[in-house]
Amino acid sequence: MFARTKVALGVAVILGSASAALAASPPQGTPAQQQQCVANMEASLHGRSVLGSRDTSIYIQSLGGVDNMGMTEYDIMVGRCMAQLYRQHARLHAGQSRQSR
Question: Would the pTM of this model clear 0.85, i.e. be above it?
């Protein structure tokens, strides 16, 4: 009986510390998570632009719009990664709130 209580208490402590760490992380990811996401995105693009094919007028117009806002293609990738990490964070916390009911 004592062993079961000890195991249950150990599991509760581990789960509590893990959820506290998740709650403490920013919803849009840490800088390291953002950098890893951007690196993965760049690798998946295989040298192409995040704005589309570089030989089209839509790309040129998009690049001009991005430039007018004072942003770069890298800024676009970081923004997309932050949104992706936020969605992951929200899904994770939505699942936790359902479980606690």
Answer: no
